[in-house]
Amino acid sequence: MEIKEIEKIDKPSVFGDLSEMGHEQIVFCNDNATGLKAVIGIHDTTLGPALGGTRMWQYTNEQEAITDVLRLSRGMTFKAAISGLNLGGGKAVIIGDADTMKTEAFLRRFGKFVNSLSGKYVTAEDVNIKTRDMEYVAMETAHVTGLPESMGGGGDPSPVTAYGTFIGMKAAAHKAYGSDSLEKKKVVVQGVGQVGMYLVEHLSKENAEVYITDISEDKLAQVSKKYGAKVVNMDGFYDLDMDIYAPCALGATLNDATISRLKCKVIAGAANNQLENEVRHGRQLKDMDIVYAPDFLINAGGLINVGAEYEGGYNRERVYQMTEKIYDTCSAVLDMSDKENISTQEAAIRLAKQRIDQVGRVKLGF
């Protein structure tokens, strides 16, 4: 089974986009009164309802937003499948400035759009959407996760996402260095938002040598002061002599312009869609003997967390136990990559698709 090369979606046909990436549905949401403009992508619901977060971003144009939601929702399908969750893949993006546009009415209107899908899509928080925002969304729909613990939810999923990324990084380090200890390893964390900050905390406790970069000077100063991490240049860090690169900001940082500059042996981070072209760049990393831990595998902790909340009877200890399984799954993917001489991205997608196919046949009674 080969994975198709999906670099960007630039054809004029929306149905062509959906067909190429295997999506079931895309929903456009518009409300003139609040200024809400959102897109919900539902990729595959074979395993269960499409659960995925909502991010808010100032996209350059509407096509950029559509491309993002299609790539993200597809990744959620694979993330749920390879993590053993009975969930499908979905995602939502809201176009606009989160600092100025978010109001109670704005978020509740979005909640009504989610509710109109009758549970086929379940939302959660993502970039620029917080737990408090989910409270407003929940006023209009029950199909929401990422609620605060005071409301019976799992709270902020960022710590679990960071923990899973840390566990996956250790598995990748074991593959590259023969030991999963990160002590004295030079790790560059790109992006120190909620997830990146928690990842730095784990790395500091393991006595790794941590370097950080981010577009926010305030975040850099905060994290550097708290954990003793060294601040590095936003672009120049690609040329640093490092052991591990951890992309934890937006996607596509592994591309034609950056990969050839990397001197690390491991790439393991929390950002989604890190490979600009998952076929070509996945193969390039393989040929360079860089161990790449597929992002949708090791950043699955957040989905595991909200998935447990969705099932009911949320138990944090059980969530962390499930997240620890990322180590073994990541090791299996890395071994499969070596055995079959395929990229780790392709190996992970094969395992995810295999589970979807097998469970799909069970559901159909074959």
Write up this protein.
The protein is of the alpha/beta class and 366 residues long. Helix content is 45%, strand content 16%. Strands 8-7-6-9-10-11 form a six-stranded parallel beta sheet, with helices on both faces. The chain has a five-stranded mixed beta sheet with strand order 1-2-4-3-5, with helices on both faces. β10 (266-267), α9 and β11 (291-292) form a beta-alpha-beta unit. The chain starts with 13 loop residues before the first helix and ends with a helix. The model is unreliable at 1-11 (pLDDT under 50).
Sum this structure up briefly.
The chain is α/β, with parallel strands linked by helices. Helices cover 45% and strands 16% of the residues.
Please give the structural blueprint.
Blueprint: H1 14-21, E1 25-31, E2 36-44, E3 50-57, H2 62-82, E4 88-95, H3 98-101, H4 104-115, E5 121-125, H5 131-137, H6 158-177, E6 186-190, H7 194-205, E7 209-213, H8 217-227, E8 230-231, E9 244-247, E10 266-267, H9 280-287, E11 291-292, H10 295-298, H11 301-311, H12 316-324, H13 326-340, H14 344-364
Parallel strand pairs: 3-4, 3-5, 6-7, 6-9, 7-8, 9-10, 10-11
Antiparallel strand pairs: 1-2, 2-4
Average pLDDT taken over every residue: 92
From the spread of the alpha carbons, the general shape counts as: globular
Q: What share of residues is helical?
A: 40-55%
Distance between the termini: 21 Å
Query: The biggest beta sheet, please?
Result: 6 strands, parallel
